[in-house]
Amino acid sequence: MFHHVKIRKIEIYHPQNTVDNAYYIEHFKKQGKDVEGFLNHMGKKKRHIIKDPEETGLTMAIKAVEKAFESSELTMKDIDMILFSTQAPEYSIPSNAMMIHEAFKGKSNTRVMDVNASCAGMTIAVEQVSMYMRANPQMKRALVIGSEQLSILSNPKEEISYATLADAACAVILEKTTENTGFIDAEYHTYSANTDKILYPIEGMSGVLSGRGEGKFLRFLPFDTSFGAPITDRMIEDLLSRNHLKIQDINAFCLSQFAYSDSTRLQERFQIDMNKILYVGDRYGYTGTSSPFIAFYEGVKSGKIQRGDLVLFWTVGAGHQFIAMLFRY
Asked: Is 248 helix (H, G, I), strand (E, B) or coil?
């Protein structure tokens, strides 16, 4: 009898082209802005940015899935469900998950869908699929993909998007197991008062398609972010408490890679060993939905995360929706 859902394999793909801080410092200097302090606060040094016009969020996803199948010795015929998480889909019709199914010739009874929960999407997708797999005896393996070309949405006049957002894809294969491992629990909090602050397209899809606006760039308006800290702290405390764990029991923290200050604040608040917090946003930029899992990937690759380790994922999507998730790797 299968009771648990584990991560069998994780792989990533990113464009080879990298852009460092010098470019953005010079770019905004021409606009009369000094962004060096901002870049230090966000913890950004390099980002992978698509340069090849033939490369997209979908092609990146295909390459990440290809790597996951090669390293796990599985094929799409072994997959019972595909969830593609993105907030910048290459296609709306059909779903990007359908495109993945076709690219790898999946079987006819595969569940296939796209998921959009903004930047929280991939973490939510892993939680939702894990719960569904535990409830459905027919489900043995699922493929969760997080991929988006965020650089194409970034506004060259706004450092918060232009100097932060980057491009990458991540593919995770989830598998049922009798081992005492895998998904444990998750905690959510939805605070929807800021739905107008981070918006794309600004005019709505109806506005863009009827010619009332370009819909070209993401809008990221300034707003008071202080509401997030107490929400996050309470979520982590509740998640640990109901699973009879202490913060010291967690072996690795895979957090949103949006701002390095998020990591340092949590480190100070919970007195976490900084070596347990995996920050890769300085090398990857902010990749949106995939960012906590790219941190996880790097943790596994470097050996900082070993089989049996307890991992806490945390991230937040625009609007805002927070998720904290416990997983035993």
From this structure: helix
CB 187 within 8 A of CB 18: no
Report how far residue 230's alpha carbon sits from residue 211's, in angstroms, rounded to the nearest whole number: 42
pLDDT band at 286 (very low <50, low <70, confident <90, very high): very high
Measured distance between the N- and C-terminal CA atoms of the chain, rounded to whole angstroms: 20
**What does the block give as tokens for 29?**
């200097």
CB 63 within 8 A of CB 13: yes
The C-alpha atoms of residue 176 and residue 154 are separated, in whole angstroms, by 39
State how far Cα 61 lies from the chain centre: 13
Q: Distance (Å, rounded) from C-alpha 201 to C-alpha 192?
A: 18
Q: Is the peptide bond before 94 cis (omega within 30 degrees of 0)?
A: yes
The pLDDT of 158-187, averaged and rounded, is 96
Domains in the chain with CATH codes: 4-179 (3.40.47.10), 183-328 (3.40.47.10)
The count of other CB atoms within 10 Å of the CB of residue 175 is 21
153 closest CA partner among 262, 63, 287: 287
Tokens of 24: 């953005």
Predicted TM-score of the model (pTM): 0.96
Mean pLDDT of 114-130: 98
User: Quick one: DSSP state of residue 16?
Assistant: S
